[in-house]
Task: structure prediction
Amino acid sequence: MKPQYSESFRLIERMHRQFLEVVKSELDRLGIQDINSVQGLILYNIGDEELTVGELTTRGYYLGSNVSYNVRKMVENGYLMQHRSTHDRRSIRVKLSPRGLDLYQKMDHLFDRHAATLNQNASFKDELANANAIFRQLERFWGSMVTFSPSDELIDLDIPE
Result:
C-alpha cells in the first residue's frame, strides 16, 4: 500500500503544479502579464461572490503563496475591489472588478473547452467522478490525521474491497 499511497500524493502535487502551468499558459495567450497563475486561480475561485481573505484561504489551496499579498496585488492591478466589512471593521471583503469579471469569464470559457474535450471520451466522466470520490476520501483521511492521536480510532474511508 505504501508505494500506491506515495504515488498518490506525488501525483496530486504534480497535477496541481501542472494545472497552474495551464492557467499561466492561458494568461500568456491572452497577453495578460500583470497577474500570475495563483492569482488567476484565486480570482476564478472568487467568481461572483464577495469574500474575506480568510474565506479565500480556507476555500482554496494556494501552495507556497501568501493570499493577502496576492489579493493586494490584484487590487493594485484592478482585478479586485475591496472594502471593510460592515459587520467586522477589521475584516476586508473582496469581489471581482469589471476587469476581474472579464478575466473570470475568459477562464470559465477555457474550463468549458477543457470539459468539452474531456467529455469526448465517454467513460472519462465516470472515471473522473470515481477519482474525485477518492480525492475526497484522502482529504477526510488527511484531515483526521491533523488531530489524530495514537489512542484515536482511524476514520472509516468506506473504501470498497
Q: What stands out?
A: The CA atoms of residues 41 and 93 lie 17 Å apart. The two ends are 13 Å apart (CA to CA). The first helix runs from residue 2 to 29.
